[in-house]
Every structure is written in C-alpha cells, then in structure tokens.
Design goal:
This protein is an alpha+beta fold. It contains 9 helices and 6 strands, in the order H-H-H-E-E-E-E-H-H-H-H-E-E-H-H.
Length: 420
C-alpha cells in the first residue's frame, strides 16, 4: 500500500507542480516557523532521553572511597597475653567494580520501549504540523495569486469603462446620444474605481498574510508563478483508503502502545533482579591483615516492592490504554468526516469552476454583441454597461473558482493522509 501511495504522490507532484517561487516560500516558511522549531527541539530532547535510557543495558561502573578517623585505635586481646592491633585510628577504604543486571523482569525493556514510542509520537506530530503548515502556505499562496488576478481584471475593466466613457463623450459631441449616456458611463467608472480600491486592499491583505506565514518580506512575494495543475478527482473510497496513514492517527496508535509498554514496566516490579558483580576492595583498616586489596566476584538477586503497588500501577496504565483507544476511535471518525467534507468541497469547487467557465463564455459573447449593437445605436448605454459588468463578474468568478478548486484539492490530499 505504501508503494502505491508514494507513486500517487509522485504523480500528483508531476501533474500539479508549482514553480520555484512556491518551493522557495515553503522552504522559508518551514525554516522560520517557531512552532516547528520548538517541535524540532523537543524531538532532539526526546532522542537524548532515549539514548540515556538505552544505557541501562550497559554494565554499571561504581567506585567508592572513604577516609575514616576514629577517636583511638582498637586492639584485639588473644591468649598468652598477646595484644594485636585490629584497627588503625585513621584508615581508608577503596572499592571499585562492575555490576551487570542479567534479568530485571522487563524493567529496562519497558523504559526503553516507552521512550522509543514517545520519540515516534513527537516525530509524527511534527510531520502533522509540517503538513498543516504546507497546506496553510499553499492556501495563502493561492489566495495571493487569486487576489492579484482579480485586481488585474478590475484594472482592465477600468480601461474598458474609460474607453466607453470616451466613446459616449464623442457620440454626445456629435449629437448622436444624449448627455445621460455620458453620465451613466461616469457613474459606472466611479463604481469600478470603488471596486478597484477594494481589490487593491484584498491583495495587500493577501500579501501580508503570506508574508506572515512565510517570514518573507512582501516585496519578495509580488512576483509569484502561476500553478500548473490538472486535478484528477478519484472516488471517495480511494481517499478514505489512506485515512489511517494520517500522521495524527499514527501518533495516537503509538500512544496506545506507550501505555502497553507501561503495563509491562509496572508488572516487572514483582520480579527479582538478578545480577553479576566483579569488584576490587582495598583497605588499610587492620594492619595485621594481608593482602590489603582483594578481587571478588559475586552473583545475587534483590526483590523489593511495597504492598501490591506494581499491580495498581499496571491497572492505571491499562485504564489509560483504554482511554487512548477510545480517543483513537473518536479521532478516526473525525478525520473520516473531515475527508468527506473536503471531498464534497472539492466536488462543489469543481462544479463551480465548470459553471463559471460556461458563464464566462456566454458573458464574452454577450458583451461583444452588445458593443456592436451600441455602435449601431440598437441598445442604450445602460445596457452596454450592464453587459460589461456581467463580463467582469464572470471573469472574477472564474478566477476565484479556479483557485478555490486548487485549495480544496490540496486540503483533501492533506486530510486524507496523501500529502506528505
């Protein structure tokens, strides 16, 4: 399944590739995003913690030194009136060696496994945030292109209305039309100027938002490349097939495994700990004893616990495991619903684009016909201006629908676990 998923994503990138401008914006956004940086530092911390826990499998090295001073020397009386010094007034004790745990009931394994799973959770949450950021940047990028295209369209509309005003003025001077035609053209020009100011504001806001997300100055974002995309919509079941590959769901499954590892760890408290020990001991406490230093090897075990504390710890971890499973099922349903909604949004966007393209084709024909009719004085100025307004609205609707389709497409890829 993973092979087909990767193949599909490669095909998506080939058929829906953005220019270098978007790659550059994405790269800078990832580099400069503080939340991602915080997650990266958290991953590094968790890796260090895991490496620390793995040291539990290594032999334990110990070294002790003690210098003691007593109020007086001690001696030992033996038969025949002899007296042997048994302890010096000042003496030292040194001990060093290695201790290795042969069996601990799964304590080390539980600790290391929990740490390893915690690292996986951190990495998956990082990938989830990374995917979310990528979609956010793509949306902001597309919004900026859309706002810019709308602005350019309205600028062209102003040129058309200005030309129409000049035409009406020329006709009026020749006595071919009434002054009302000129006034109507001026009113329409004022309306277009108002729409132009609004479009300029929307474009500035889109630039500011993209700058905020990417960390790049607005000056670098004024010349963005147009996306080339061929959105191929597949059946809903195809997208639902990959839902469980969503990183947030993977992270929740790892959390379930963490509590399973904690159950094993708690259970290990009932088992004895078997160990081997090799040590060297040196002391000059008794001057009569030789040698002062000796090597020793030993094997043993220790077992200690308070009441049935490990039992309750295992129960606690078991309840948390059940809680995590319930959370996973709830999260899975939410993600499935998210995919279905994104799929419906994509269907709607696709239909809207088709309708807007058809409406634009009709509006273009209608406007061309209206221009000819006006030049031949078959229709009024008001009717021509209405045709021009309808054409501009159709162009704007087509632009907005196109970019909304792309946004819906990339949203669907993300929520279904296909965008990596």
């Amino acid at each position: 399944m993973r092979k087909y998923q990767v193949l599909f994503f490669i095909l998506v990138m080939l058929t829906a590739s953005f220019g270098k401008s978007l790659d550059y914006v994405l790269e800078k956004a990832i580099e400069r995003n503080q939340e991602l940086e915080a997650l990266r530092q958290e991953i590094l911390s968790t890796k260090a913690s895991l490496n620390a826990q793995k040291q539990l499998y290594l032999p334990e090295f110990f070294i002790n030194y003690r210098l003691s001073y007593s109020s007086q020397e001690q001696s030992l009386s033996v038969p025949f009136g002899l007296e042997v010094k048994s302890s010096k007034q000042s003496y030292s004790l040194f001990q060093g060696g290695l201790r290795y745990v042969l069996f601990d009931g799964g304590t080390r394994a539980g600790i290391v496994e929990s740490s390893a799973l915690e690292l996986k959770v951190k990495q998956l949450l990082y990938e989830e945030k990374l995917g979310s950021l990528r979609v956010e940047v793509i949306h902001a990028y597309l919004d900026t292109l859309s706002a810019k295209a709308v602005l350019e369209t309205i600028k062209k509309q102003r040129e058309v209305v200005e030309l129409q005003l000049n035409t009406a003025q020329a006709f009026y001077e020749k006595g071919l039309v009434a002054i009302t035609d000129v006034l109507q053209a001026r009113v329409r020009l004022a309306e277009v100027e108002r729409e132009l100011r609004k479009a300029e504001g929307n474009y500035r806001l889109a630039l500011a938002n993209l700058s905020r997300i990417s960390g790049l100055p607005e000056e670098e974002l004024t010349d963005l490349e147009e996306p080339k995309s061929n959105v191929e919509l597949k059946p809903l079941d195809y997208y639902l097939l990959y839902v469980r590959d969503r990183n947030i769901l993977k992270a929740q499954r790892e959390r379930i495994d963490i509590f399973k590892a904690q159950k094993k760890l708690a259970r290990s408290g009932f088992f004895p700990k078997l160990f081997l020990e090799a040590s060297y001991t040196y002391t000059d406490q008794n001057p009569a004893i030789r040698p002062k230093g000796i090597f020793s090897f030993s094997a043993g075990f220790n077992l200690s616990f308070q009441g049935i504390k490990p039992y309750y710890q295992e129960m606690s971890a078991g309840y948390m495991e059940l809680k995590a499973k319930r959370e996973y099922e709830d999260l899975l349903q939410k993600v499935v619903l998210e995919v279905k909604k994104a799929y419906e949004d994509l269907l709607t966007s696709k239909d809207n684009l088709k309708v807007s393209e058809e409406a634009l084709a009709f509006a273009e024909k209608f406007f061309e016909l209206s221009k000819e009719q006006y030049l031949n004085q078959l229709i009024s100025q008001r009717e021509l201006l209405e045709a021009e307004a309808s054409l501009t609205k159709a162009r704007v609707d087509k632009i907005v629908s196109y970019y909304q389709l792309l946004k819906a497409y990339y949203t669907l890829l993300f929520v279904s676990g296909l965008e990596k």
